[in-house]
Amino acid sequence: MGVIDINNITKDYGNGRGVFDVSFTVEKGEVLGFLGPNGAGKTTTIRQLMGFIKPDSGSLSIQGMDCFKKADKIQKSVGYLPGEIAFIDSMNGMEFISFVAKLKKMNGMGRAHELMEMFELNASGKLKKMSKGMKQKIGIVCAFMDTGADILILDEPTSGLDPLMQNRFVELILAEKRRGRTILMSSHMFEEVERTCGRAAIIRDGRLVAMEDMGKLREGRQKTVEFTFSKAAMAAEFASGFPKAACQGGSRTVTAQVGRNLDAFVKKAGMYTVTDLNVRTQSLEEFFLHFYGEGASE
């Protein structure tokens, strides 16, 4: 049994909406990415973990506690960042953070000030006047400030953050990983999942389509390699040795998608005079769309 256990849960809202027979486990000290497009079922699954909704069938547990029956205890002991944060608009940011600390029965503010400094957050303003990015920072502070919470459940945590703050968030996750915290993080930001997670659960249309090791995902990604040779004849001769290589007539440039045959591809090119080289690695988003997107079943 893992720290987080999801066993064959179904929550059917009709018309193909919901989640269907989803199962996966998050082990102690693991950072697991929960990937899928908007509407795939990530938030529905997370809301069941937090005890906000009950599955039609199946079960969920955190540290052996039933997520619906023990929802109060779980909500106080887990660092949670919802996809849509319910703020009290009459409060300012500091008042809201303090309010959440009291709900969790924390002794003081924990790491709140450290996190506010990390994310360059001035929480003195009224919540109703804050931007989406500012509100997201407040949510991150609330989720991470309790040093006693060894489990974090994060729903689209970098939504609304600029690239600099997204990088700060990745640094935060890596630091929490080193501390041994167990983290489930839903996202469609594949780069942050690639940088932080050991495994990824991939959901599509409410069904879990794969549980992948991130190392294997990286190995399986295609690279688009573009060689430019000194002469068109070299390019044509080189391309003839690779069925998937493309070289337009008279062109000195050869383009090919390569995976595990990259070494052979580069060594072969070394037999000719190469004047330019470009390499673009397939993003994880493109990788997932290729294997799990439209037409994948075909």
Automatic annotation (TrEMBL):
Leader sequence residues: none
Q: Which GO terms describe its molecular function?
A: ATP binding; ATP hydrolysis activity
Could you tell me the keywords of this UniProt record? ATP-binding, Nucleotide-binding, Transport
The answer to whether keyword Chloroplast applies is: no
All residue ranges annotated as the ABC transporter domain in the record: 4-230
- List the CDD domains hit by this protein, alphabetically: ABC_DR_subfamily_A
Q: Which Pfam families did the record assign?
A: ABC_tran
* Recorded superkingdom: Bacteria
Q: Does the keyword Magnesium apply?
A: no
Annotated SMART domains = AAA
Family per UniProt?
Belongs to the ABC transporter superfamily.
User: Could you identify this protein by its name?
Assistant: ABC transporter ATP-binding protein
- Organism of this sequence: Extibacter muris
The record lists the lineage as:
Bacteria, Bacillati, Bacillota, Clostridia, Lachnospirales
